[in-house]
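Consider the following assembly input.
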Amino acid sequence: MHSEVVASRNADQRDSSRESRNGTPQLDAVSLAIIQQLQEDGRRPYAAIGKAVGLSEAAVRQRVQKLLDQGVMQIVAVTDPLTVGFRRQAMVGVNVEGDVESIADALTAMSEVEYVVMTAGSFDILAEIVCEDDDHLLDVINKRIRALPGVRSTESFVYLKLKKQTYMWGTR
Amino acid sequence: MHSEVVASRNADQRDSSRESRNGTPQLDAVSLAIIQQLQEDGRRPYAAIGKAVGLSEAAVRQRVQKLLDQGVMQIVAVTDPLTVGFRRQAMVGVNVEGDVESIADALTAMSEVEYVVMTAGSFDILAEIVCEDDDHLLDVINKRIRALPGVRSTESFVYLKLKKQTYMWGTR
DNA sequence: GCCACGTCTGCGAAATCCGCAATCCACGAC
DNA sequence: GTCGTGGATTGCGGATTTCGCAGACGTGGC
């Protein structure tokens, strides 16, 4: 045992706390392997993960805790909102004049907005919105988002059917 | 104790196995409350969840197992791919002539594609792509997606910065 | 009435989680 | 070279959680 990722251990382990230039922690191979295990099953026992990545149960537990504290990953239940009673979802493309980031922050503050990303292309921001019904969706897009000062225009894509939703990159 | 959601228990519990017309299971208030707990912390103990929703530990465990088996939810670690070494991500809007669903299936089959949704609006499909670098991204978009028969056109939005990623609707 | 079915509860055994002290190792100071 | 420091890992015992199962309960079909 202790066969999988052992080779790079001593060389890499310090990296797990080093910071790259944008402030996000640099991850070594062992932490990536741990994340991958938890992407397959977020409730997998620490001991099983340890056996897979070549670490003791306590060490895995410590690393997982740190990854959670640092915000590198979160362990959560994910659902298809359509299954769970949120009948209207949409992706909204936003064009901004002025400070894009402050608009993105404003969108982030809205509870109906699940996902915000700044992009290059014909939209400055893409935001995913989850609502209970059409009225709610209309309200969020027209009254709240378009009302933000600096929002030049928006385009909406109402979801018809979610086909895929994965969190298992790495497992290729 | 046993105070939170008790009132609707006997009336609703059978619904947890009933099917709505599109084949997705109908969820009662207790299951929703359980999901909500696990959206806050995917590793929360069953006993703690039980206390919060007014059910025994064993009952919670049974329900969670069923929700997982039915595919209503999954408990997984989620990360910002940019933090974890995938340096290029993009949302791709696709326009299709002919059968949209078969194109969506083809996209779903690609391992680089994390997210596929069929939409109403100026795109038929939105797909999120996670790649290691520019070459990889270019390859996926130009060689693989545009090559699919029936794809009329695509538009790409390369991610610059992920601002928000939540799974806590319901917690409003 | 009575059986079948699905769900919930209670409980004991096994496994897991948790905190802590000791150890190991790389690295810098002197 | 030696010593000290800090971070990571390990090994453990006790507390907690998970797991499987048998029994109880309520509802609907016959």
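Residues 1-17 of chain B have pLDDT under 50 and may be disordered. Ask yourself how this observation constrains the way the partners meet.
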